[in-house]
Amino acid sequence: MTKIISTHSYRGGTGKSNVTANLAASLALRGHRVGIVDTDIQSPGIHALFKVDLNSVKQTLNNFLWGHCAITDAALDVTANVVDAQGQPQVPDGGHVYLVPSSIKTGEIARILKEKYDVEDLNRGFIELCQGLELDYLLIDTHPGVNEETLLSIAISDTLLLILRPDIQDYQGTAVTLELARKLEVPQLFLVVNKALETFDFNDLSQRIFSNYRTPVAAVLPLSTDLIQIGSTGLIRTLQQEHAFTRAIESIVDAIE
Predict the structure, then answer these.
(1) pLDDT higher for 9 or 147?
(2) Residue 100 and residue 38: Cα distance in Å, rounded?
(3) In angstroms, what CA-CA distances link 100 with 17, 48, 210?
(4) Angle formed by the axes of helices 168-183 and 148-155, to 10°?
């Protein structure tokens, strides 16, 4: 049975998509079949981490929501794009990563924002994707904030990863999302602190956040110069396998696997 994991943040700019992509890579490296759906339709971006040129892609999540294709037809096999620093594929036999991207075409973004879509179609798509691709894990990269799509993603999730930065505005918004998740009775909740300066005491930061929210902190992810340089050009998990960021991603996988 597929385990559904939503990654969410109350505000944009937390590095949510980067965390999602690296988690997917880590799960695939352990031999799992992993699907990712980019439901951040207003500002999609996770495709860049897998070096996907959306200008050459015929079907996206948008096409599925308009009833033009099956969601499995919009799923791209990006397994071969999980590479090391030498460009060598890293996923072992049996492991797979599939990505359902959202369109980056201005007209298609504007259309879906204007016409909206039925969130029940999105729910049906998740189920069809899990069954059609025989996924072990489905990762849903959500749109920041709270809207109908976000509530659906949270409600159907086995695990919710709430990404926050060590910032007072993120703290306040995260409290709101946590309250919603508890009311929706999500079975497993974790906080992930991202973009923590290397000068911080990570253990102290983790303890303070746990004390504030009474929610387990799966990891504190560092912000460093080399991570900024890599940016969205690839997956840190395989490009720098001994990095502190990579070790933190692995600790999150240990918690959710």
Answers:
(1) 9
(2) 6
(3) 13, 13, 33
(4) 60
Range 3-256 classified under CATH 3.60.20.10: no
Residue type, 195: K
Are the CB atoms for 159 and 190 separated by under 8 Å?
yes
d(CA 2, CA 72): 15
Question: For residue 230, what pLDDT is reported?
Answer: 75
Beta-carbon count within 10 A of 129 CB: 23
At 100, phi and psi to the nearest 5? -105, 100
Which pLDDT tens digit goes with each residue over 168-211?
Answer: 878 888 988 999 999 999 999 999 999 998 889 999 999 999 99
- Cβ neighbors of 229 (< 8 A, separation 6 or more) are none
Q: Please tell me the distance from the alpha carbon of residue 107 to that of residue 245, in angstroms, as a whole number.
A: 36
Average pLDDT (44-50) is 93
Q: Is the predicted pLDDT of residue 27 greater than 80, yes or no?
A: yes
Written in H, E and C, the secondary structure of the chain is CCEEEEEECCCCCCCHHHHHHHHHHHHHHCCCEEEEEECCCCCCCHHHHHCCCHHHCCCCHHHHHCCCCCHHHHCEECHHHCECCCCCECCCCCCEEEEECCCCCHHHHHHHHHHCCCHHHHHHHHHHHHHHCCCCEEEEECCCCCCHHHHHHHHCCCEEEEEECCCHHHHHHHHHHHHHHHHCCCCEEEEEEEEEECCCCHHHHHHHHHHHHCCCEEEEEEECHHHHHHCCCCCHHHHCCCCHHHHHHHHHHHHHC
**Average pLDDT over all residues of the chain:** 92
